[in-house]
TrEMBL record:
Pfam families: DUF924. Gene3D superfamilies: Tetratricopeptide repeat domain, TPR-like. SUPFAM superfamilies: TPR-like. Transmembrane segments: none annotated. This is DUF924 domain-containing protein. It comes from Sphingopyxis macrogoltabida (Sphingomonas macrogoltabidus).
Length: 188
């Protein structure tokens, strides 16, 4: 059970980045399961609860804090709250921080592993302008699969104006064609 009044340690960003990038990798990031999610949750759940009410500018003090915050508000909820509205509850905060990172050019000095996570909030957004930004940013990465996934996300938002696979979690009624799109495998 999270305790919203527990302040994170001063080095929370360093701890999260070490966990994410040093102790784990691609298999966990994109294919992890209950074990990875539990380990991640044990580390950061209270931090997320304590920090989620702060404005984006609070996390744009330096590149490492910004990247850790993007993970905390974009990736972490997707791992800890699969199939629940809480998975998307801090998306706007993650996008605002990611936008600040790109505007400051901090992403240009990172390797592609870090850059992809700085860009994923745009790909996860249901705003078509954010989707366009995702395509622009993911095209800069060496691995073409990141751009391919970004294109698939763009296509769904361009077609439906949202991600249909979120409908159940968000209590939204499906529109024509959305259930078929989910069945076709467009369910990130």
């Amino acid at each position: 059970m999270p305790h919203e009044n527990i302040a994170p340690p001063a080095d929370w960003a360093r701890q999260l980045l070490a966990f994410w990038f040093d102790a784990h990798g691609m298999d966990d990031w994109f294919g992890g399961g209950p074990g990875f999610d539990a380990e991640l949750g044990a580390l950061v759940q209270d931090w997320r609860a304590a920090l989620r009410s702060l404005p984006a500018a609070s996390f744009l003090t330096d590149p490492e804090t910004a990247l850790a915050a993007i993970l905390l508000f974009d990736q972490v909820p997707r791992n800890l709250h699969r199939g629940d509205a809480q998975a998307f509850a801090t998306d706007s905060l993650a996008v605002a921080i990611a936008r600040g990172v790109v505007e400051r050019g901090w992403d240009r000095d990172w390797n592609d592993d870090r850059r992809v996570f700085a860009y994923l909030p745009f790909e996860h957004s249901e705003d078509i302008a954010d989707q366009r930004e995702s395509l622009r940013l993911m095209a800069q990465l060496a691995d073409p699969s990141f751009l391919e996934y970004a294109q698939k996300h763009f296509d769904i938002v361009d077609r439906f104006g949202r991600f249909p696979h979120r409908n159940a979690a968000l209590g939204r009624a499906s529109r024509p064609g959305e259930e078929a799109a989910i069945e076709e495998g467009k369910n990130w």
